[in-house]
Q: What sequence folds into this?
């Protein structure tokens, strides 16, 4: 069964800064806007806005940690994104195989002339 493609999820993943934030969170296990901004070429405020987008797409989960909010990757939603990517990749592989077959048929017909 082909999973439904979630446009909000893919819009969130479409930004390289948000993908980098996810990379950092996956590597470290968690992070705050402050700790993440120290490793990014953007301000803390920009990181906080990107984390909000990731939160709306359910890719990260906020957890209060004293006065700060610590973010962790929502593994179920991340797995869903991977599943959708695999599905889209398989669909494109099938399309490209069909195009190759058509091109080979055209080439064979031309060589017969």
A:
């Amino acid at each position: 069964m082909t999973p439904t493609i979630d446009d909000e999820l893919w819009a969130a993943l479409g930004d390289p800064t948000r993908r980098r934030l996810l990379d950092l969170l996956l590597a470290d296990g968690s992070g705050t806007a402050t700790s993440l901004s120290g490793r990014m070429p953007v301000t803390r405020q920009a990181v906080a806005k990107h984390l909000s987008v990731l939160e709306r797409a359910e890719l990260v989960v906020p957890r209060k940690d004293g006065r700060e909010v610590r973010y962790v990757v929502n593994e179920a939603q991340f797995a869903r994104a991977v599943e959708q990517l695999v599905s889209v990749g398989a669909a494109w592989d099938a399309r490209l195989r069909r195009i190759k077959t058509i091109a080979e048929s055209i080439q064979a017909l031309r060589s017969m002339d």
